[in-house]
Amino acid sequence: MVHSLSLWFLAAAFLGAGIVNAIGAAGARNEFAKWGYPRWWGIVTGGLEIAAAALLALPATRIWGAVLAATIIAAAILTVLRHRDYQHLPPLSVFVSLIAVWAISS
């Protein structure tokens, strides 16, 4: 049960984040620019997050979705730490927790 719930929460979280980044919400665009990424980087990030959500939803590709999700979150954490933008760590820790709970319960 925990395994299934954590998987769907994880997929939903990546889908939501992906949509926000892909549509280029002003706040997200400004954050990417502040960190030195090009303006279009949010679209790439959003696409990767949506792809991770889709891969997580399909049993045959679930492990690849988890790998992509973990890679995205690791890159986000490194970016936040590098720029000392610590207010982004709590939401990222939710993603880390969901990935960990899903991996441990697998």
Automatic annotation (TrEMBL):
<feature type="transmembrane region" description="Helical">
    <location>
        <begin position="88"/>
        <end position="105"/>
    </location>
</feature>
<keyword id="KW-1133">Transmembrane helix</keyword>
<keyword id="KW-0472">Membrane</keyword>
<keyword id="KW-0812">Transmembrane</keyword>
<feature type="transmembrane region" description="Helical">
    <location>
        <begin position="63"/>
        <end position="81"/>
    </location>
</feature>
<feature type="transmembrane region" description="Helical">
    <location>
        <begin position="40"/>
        <end position="57"/>
    </location>
</feature>
<protein>
    <submittedName>
        <fullName>Membrane protein YphA (DoxX/SURF4 family)</fullName>
    </submittedName>
</protein>
<feature type="transmembrane region" description="Helical">
    <location>
        <begin position="6"/>
        <end position="28"/>
    </location>
</feature>
<dbReference type="InterPro" id="IPR032808">
    <property type="entry name" value="DoxX"/>
</dbReference>
<dbReference type="Pfam" id="PF13564">
    <property type="entry name" value="DoxX_2"/>
</dbReference>
